[in-house]
Amino acid sequence: MVTEEDRQFLWDAYAPDHQMRLNLGIRLRLSPLLNNDRRRIELAYSLLLTLPGSPIIYYGDEIGMGDNITLKDRGGLRTPMQWSDEENAGFSVAHPSAMYSPVNDDEVFGYKRINARSQLGDPSSLFHTVRMMILARKRHRAFGRGNCQFLGPQNTAVLAYLRRYESEDILVVQNLSSSRQSVSLELPEFPACLPVDVLTGGAFAPVSRGPYALGLDPYQYLWLTLKPLSQPIP
Predict the structure, then answer these.
(1) Res. 42: pLDDT tops 80
(2) So what's the pLDDT on residue 231?
């Protein structure tokens, strides 16, 4: 639980409309919660999939589904899965009046615009990005089984930590702010290592014995496996 002061801050920041609130919490899906900002949504998934614990993704959030806060209680989060742009979002062939819950048909998050079929055909879609992250997490056991060492850089807008398991070391660096940030990280255990991006395969400058400097765009996240320079890069 959070303090009353913290709860009011969260409500003011993420649920300014009282219809967005339920009891002591917030009844919004991920995309509306983050103003449908693709960068922030991806950053949220980066946090979910790289921090310790078992990640859970609510159906439809992988394609950026919205909600309907005019429906009672938690019904606004339980609208039919948006499979396609066909009638009833491809969820059912029943007459719309027979549906237990109406499909979301608003201009921003409605099924005509947000649906699984269209995202499956778009390599740049949120679905494919989340899928890529999940596959990377499954390939690297350090995310699911490794320990977590927070690095605590001076720039508090940047969250950085090491996930380590057996012989695998992964550096995760995430810019939590809406502006470009620079950060210096102390990595004394990894001299002469080459950071390689887990998600893209791109290599960064080798780690030296001094602080390791990185620049990050707004809400940028990096998953960097630290490989000794003597070890071949796949």
Answers:
(1) yes
(2) 60
Of 162, 144, 166, whose CA–CA distance to 152 is shortest? Answer: 162
Which residues, listed in sequence order, are joined to residue 147 by a DSSP beta bridge? 164
Question: What's the pLDDT band for 15 if we cut at 50, 70, 90?
Answer: confident
Tell me which CATH code domain 146-228 carries. 2.60.40.1180
Residue in 207, 53, 224 with CA at minimum distance from that of residue 136: 224
Taken as a whole, the chain contains a residue count of 234
Q: Could you tell me which CATH number the domain at 4-139 has?
A: 3.20.20.80
| H helix count then E strand count, the chain | 6, 9
What global pTM score does this model have?
0.92
**Any idea which residue has 């009833």 for tokens?**
88
Q: Which helix (H) or strand (E) holds 136?
A: helix 126-139
Q: Which of 76, 71, 2, 75 lies closest to 33, judged by CA?
A: 76
Q: What is the mean pLDDT of residues 229-233?
A: 63
Cα distance between residue 184 and residue 201, in whole Å: 22
For residue 130, pLDDT over 70 is answered with yes
Average pLDDT (108-121) is: 97
Q: How far apart are CA 87 and CA 97, in angstroms?
A: 12
**φ and ψ at 170, to 5 degrees?**
-125, 125
Residues of the chain with CATH 3.20.20.80: 4-139
